[in-house]
Fold:
Amino acid sequence: MSTAELVNHRPGRSYLLSAVAILASIVVFVVPFVFIVLTAVKDRQQAALLDFSWPHQFQFVENFVAVIEARDYMLVIAFINSTVLTVVSVTGMVVLAAMVGFVLQRRRSRWNPFINFIVLSGLIIPPAVVPTIWVLQGLQLFRTMTGLILIEIAFGLSFCILLFRAFVATIPRELDEAAVIDGAGPLRLFFRVIFPLLRSVIVTVVVVQSVNVFNDFVNPLYFLPGDQNATVQLTLFNFQSQFTTQYNLLFMNILLITIPPLVMFLFFNRQIVAGMTSGAVKG
Amino acid sequence: MSATSVRPRAQAEASPAAPPAKGKVYSPYSNWFYLPSAVIYGVLFVVPTFASLYFSLTRWSLFESKFIGLENFRLFFQEPQLVKGFTNTLIFAVITSGSKVVLGLLLAVLLTSQIIGRGYLRSVVFFPVLVSTIGVGLTFTVLMNPERGLINGALEVIGINGPGWLTDPKWALLSVALVDVWKGVGLATLIYIAGIVSIPREYMEAARVDGAGSWETFRRIVLPLSRPATVTVIILSLIGGLRSFDLIWAMTRGGPGFTSDVIASVIYKQYQAGFYGLSTAGNVVLFVVVTAVVLPLFWYLNRKEVDM
Structure:
């Protein structure tokens, strides 16, 4: 019997409660997504009604092609841009943040409170937009993918460091000591011994941050303007004005953009929950 | 110094104070590990943050800046639309954060109980967290359409005349907050579930032996022991709420008029208009607001936790 089962031990009530919960979840959480899918496959006239109804005719392929072809295949370019941005910046974040989190948790020095403060302020302080653009311009990185990748890494580091630091605390120090006695240097100790043990929290960080970066709207809006550089979130935004009379295409776009997170979720749901839960349980 | 052996259930978050290291002992924990992060973070985050303090006092065109003292801030707190953005930010953050705490805890208790379809429910509650904010915003803009939208259509069936969610100045900000809660409550729930599941089962067993019912168990054990989760949820959602921009921009663009403007959308509008100094002043205001709200709360909540 798990802890959770002990919390609510009322077998008699759970059928009614379950039915209510499932019904409520369908109304509140499922219907909006069904609405997206239904509107995405409607024809133009019916989609303009904005109602929740079964499509008269399914235009999945037509709508799909129309969205893809819009504005010289902007959506395709955007998907490529977003993929590059997400993969590179999340990889960078994970490696760099794991290194910091590890040393920060293990090494006791009088600088620790200061470093913790800096890390925490990265989570709290909203980035100053125009001065960042100013710095990027000075580095010749404004309006470049490299610049945006570095920006995403910089803004995402704090969150990752905190997760890694908390998780490293659960790894027994004796392991480090054993590795050091066996002759491992700092790099070897970290990459060969510690890093593999961080697997579950790495999965959490990767999933959470790649969804964040993929869904990020503000940073591309500010730091990578221009149609050729658009990321998927910006296409949605750019299409909004163009598609006001073509809701079917707007929702097809939303649907396409929702698929990558959905795949992530279906594939990694268990690891996210397990990762976060195991961190909390082991303490 | 490395003699600190296993601390049971190390509350690393709660006790950041570390004993100062004495002497130069060989450490396998190299300070070089900080370097790459420090460079990226320093150049792209710390430098702009400090630069913003200066540039907020200037009239600025990115190439040249003219010092004008506190003029930008005076403007910020005199123009009614900018002041509105300021108060809206606070309202939005408090509403969304409070709702996420309450709903998140309730859902977590529900989803850790012996309920049918628990996996399905957890998934369905959590999924919106992963969906594009802009996509959610546009979808709900359509659902909240006053005449043709699904929400008002459904309300009409049960005899309620729904308001113009996004077109009525009284409702616009609340509607956006509602959608923000819809999208964000899954994360709060997940954090609470992790907290509840980590409560040692002995406590529950002891409570049961002592004759505690479900409510008593919840009140005396689950609630106090999920306090770290509460702290996390409050802090995270407050920070998110105060900085929130994309949902508001996707749904109302600060409208109607400027009734649902928040500081972050003001920053963008001023940036678009080319008032870089004013935009940066907005950033500094937001920075001060977030710090002034979150830091005291953080210290307060963490101190209480240590006391326990």
